[in-house]
Amino acid sequence: MTDLLIDLIKRFEGLRLSAYRCSAGVWTIGYGHTRCIAKGLLITEQQANTLLLQNISKTINQALVISSILAEAGENRLSAICYFIFNIGVGRYKILHSSKMC
Predict the structure, then answer these.
(1) CATH 3.40.640.10 correct for 3-98
(2) Is 13 among the catalytic positions?
(3) Is-above-0.85 flag for pTM?
(4) Which of 28, 41, 59, 63 is disulfide-compatible with 22, CB 3.0–4.6 A?
(5) Which DSSP symbol is given to 101?
(6) One of 22, 72, 82, 102 is an active-site residue; which one?
(7) Looking at beta carbons, which pairs linking 65-74 to residues 24 or more positions away fall under 8 Å?
(8) Whether the Cβ atoms of residue 69 and residue 52 lie closer than 8 Å to each other
(9) pLDDT per residue over 2-51, tens digit each?
(10) What span, in angstroms and rounded, lies between the C-alpha atoms of 102 and 94?
């Protein structure tokens, strides 16, 4: 897990401590967390940070399974690709990767 990736996500996602619908209509909270979120849910900043670290760890692990060559990527490249995956979702990344677009 890289500090650069954490900083990227925090900077561009922003922190929301109450559940909201993102531009795609998905319930979201914290720094872009979208799992098990419902209207009215509130969290603390500490909970948002915990969710973010869990999401980043999961994203990096899934990215490495899909594209093992990323293990050789430098911190900047890995952070950029994982931020991209964080935003589009692992499912979409699998489709892009399997069609050789990534």
Answers:
(1) no
(2) yes
(3) no
(4) 28
(5) -
(6) 22
(7) 66/90, 66/93, 66/94, 66/97, 67/97, 67/102
(8) no
(9) 899 999 999 999 999 999 998 889 999 999 999 999 999 999 999 999 99
(10) 9
